[in-house]
Write the structure tokens for this entry.
Amino acid sequence: MTTSLPIRPRSAFDDLGFAGTIDALVAQTQELYRADGVPWVIGYSGGKDSTAVLQIVWQALQGLEPEQRTKPVHVISTDTLVENPVVAAWVTHSLEVMAEEATAQGLPLTPHRLTPTVTDTFWVNLIGRGYPAPRPKFRWCTERLKIKPSNAFIRDMVRSHGEAILVLGTRKAESSGRHARMAALESRRVRDLLSPNDSLPNCLVYSPVENWSNDDVWMFLMQTPNPWGYSNKELLTMYQGASPDGECPLVVDASTPSCGDSRFGCWTCTLVEKDKSMSAMIQNDEEKEWMLPLLELRNALDVADDRHLRDFRRMNGSVQLFHDKTIPGPYKQSAREDWLRRLLEAQAWIRENGPAYVRALDLITIAELEEIRRIWVVDKHEFEDHLPEIYEAAIGEPYPGKPLDEHLPLGADMIASLQEVVGEDRLHFELVRELLDIEQRHRAQVRRAGLFESLEKALRKGFYDDEADATLRAHKRKAAMERVPAEPDRSPDPLDLADGYARPKAATEPIS
């Protein structure tokens, strides 16, 4: 009789044992730290991988003599402002504790909470500008919310010191794609253990746990006390709560799932089919039921076909076709106002019904609301200025923003009269509204430069009867352009440029 024994996955601790592996890794980190004067920047998300890396660096610094701690170590954590609130609170408190403990221990380690600029935040782009909920083919959020804040900090380090070393918790075992990318960068290493960073010149990457598995990370966190006094067991509990089955099983073979597979991120994320971590938190913990309004709003954003919520014109006013249908543009005014109303109502409900630690939760900041209001009134000519009344109806308090400096061209009575005249003809209401706003803004100027161009742009955007009329005209225009070849020495028609059917001539080409 043959007995099949389960094959245990290889661990990073097999060769030297757990203690020997950690000692060797700490010594390696100390050697890299002392090798030069280049500052270190540690990426910290509060998750298991970045926590493990930060603990290793912290242990390395603790093991050095005070006079050897010669260069700064910056810990950066990017808060997108739409992070899962439980995780965001965890990370924010961790940074506060970390700063106090680093000072007490005499370590040259400084934590930084980074946020996107107000013009780049999720709600300013979605509710303000009308960007549709992110999709894999229109992933506008990652660059603005995560990459730009951290890259700006790292570039400042490079400008100040000429070079920077980025310490990350990336691991080859995370995915086959990650393994391939890390292996490719490893082959281009210019110094031992330091890989180049393709997007950040003069920045090298150190990945101390690159060969660890999920289970190796959890073993290290459970076996090693957190040096800044935070609880790794609470971190495990948070991952456990974000696992659909509510368990972190003892891993005995390769087929057993690990709770380390749980992933946290933005609660608004529509790049995944379902927010499994938030759903699991609500399912596993009655105290987390206050997050239900967030999950409902996230699911409302994630609709398969949102054409009814979006303008048939692109952001620049052009009408473009794909498979004989118009390519939808930004969210309509009604949709943007509805998203704001639902977001503020969710905030008010959570503050009233949630536990004490979320009674002051801001799902959207006043600075974001002010920027959204400016975009609506100034950029989009929506001088009805509905934002304050939406805020007051949802929150039950007066809007705390500043008065608008802009002189609005029409009062509430005149707006109501205009709407009554045009009836259901929303397109022509928007056209007349924009023309009036443009005229009003240019009236106060000594020189009215750009007036006629602004008026022409508004007319080109709003002269259609409806979407069907715009679609028909776009088809006719496209067919005409396909029949008649463009003359090489003639400038493209402005309407062709606006509709996307022609490209401007290169700057080096003569234009007759």
Observations:
- The first strand starts at residue 40 and ends at 43.
- Confidence is low (pLDDT under 50) at residues 245-262, 507-512.
